[in-house]
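Nucleoside diphosphate kinase
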Amino acid sequence: MVCTLLSIFSLFSRAMAANKERTFIMVKPDGVQRGLVGKIIKKFEQKGFKLVALKFVWASEELLKQHYSDLAGRPFFPGLVKYMSSGPVVPMVWEGLNVVKTGRVLLGATNPADSAPGTIRGDLCIQVGRNIIHGSDAVESANKEIALWFNEKELVTWQPATQAWVYED
């Protein structure tokens, strides 16, 4: 009986920890300029994810070079940094079960032409260079990106009233 209770508690604890996975999502300058921030937030909220941080900033080239450092050797890197620093962006942190993977599905393919209808890029974008949103591609990159854009005090811990209606016990 004790072993069974411990097993149930262990499964519950792992499920609750999985619900705490975080991802980094950023509305790019074209998404901000087109007034799509609210639509994007709505998609994540409707899915059931919890917003734990959000900013409205004009990112420096230095910050953007750090953010996109894995692409530094690519020929499009200078143009990407220039474009991303051309206007304000909205970096956010979302939390929930499998939020990195599911967030990428909500975004759609990097190339909007390959994005399914119903996805953010599939419904709202035409070209890769104006695909309105960035999303972490793995938990590790999410953690790196979150730490780059937010300090610990900016990540809000809270419990939405809808929690029980989104997640099973």
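thats it. Residues 8-15 have pLDDT under 50 and may be disordered. Strands lie at 22-27, 50-54, 90-95, 133-135. bye
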